[in-house]
Amino acid sequence: MIGGQIVDIESEGKPVDSAALEYIHRSKTGAMICASVVVGGIVAGASEHQIDKLRGYGERIGLAFQIADDILDVTSTSEQLGKTPGKDQAASKATYPAIHGIAASDARARQLVTEAVEIISSLGMETHVLEEMARFVIARNS
User: Fold this and answer.
1) What's the CA gap between 92 and 111, in Å, rounded?
2) SS (H, E, C) 5-19
3) At what angle are helices 2-11 and 18-27 packed, to 10 degrees?
4) What local confidence, expressed as pLDDT, does residue 95 receive?
């Protein structure tokens, strides 16, 4: 998370390409979400195969969460967010909507959630809660 935050701060006001943006997003809150999912699997006694599936799921919902957060910063009101929107643009931060546009960013987040649900459901276990959690990261409005 620290590495992603450093790159994020160092990139403010500078042109950032898609690869750097994805690194930033995967390495900040995305990494924390992924780690939480993996640790949950380890504590539950999951096999290496199951841990790999959980990691793939966590990476995707972590990135989808960050993309959704970027979109909300552009499209939401202060009342919806509970904070001032537009801060990323004001700070010249690299965001998915700034690089790809809102529609493409939304499509990418949805694709990641679809992939996450496919990965987790392939475990052949009761994964309803994890599937709903994946869908929530892009359905939220704050």
Assistant:
1) 26
2) HHHHHHHCCCCCCHH
3) 140
4) 92
pLDDT band at 13 (very low <50, low <70, confident <90, very high): confident
Q: 3-state DSSP call for residue 85?
A: coil
**Lookup result for tokens 């910063």:** 73
Which residues, in sequence order, are CB contacts of 41 under 8 Å at separation 6+? Answer: 50, 51, 54
Structural domain range at position 130: 2-139
* Number of domains composing the chain: 1
Q: What are 137's two structure tokens? A: 């990261």
Residue 93, sorted as left (phi over 0), alpha (psi -120 to 50) or beta, turns out to be beta
Residue 40: name the closest of 49, 50, 30 by CA.
50
**Residue 56 structure tokens:** 């793939």
Report pLDDT digits (tens) over 81-96.
666 667 777 667 889 9
Quick one: pLDDT at residue 42? 97
CATH number at residue 94: 1.10.600.10
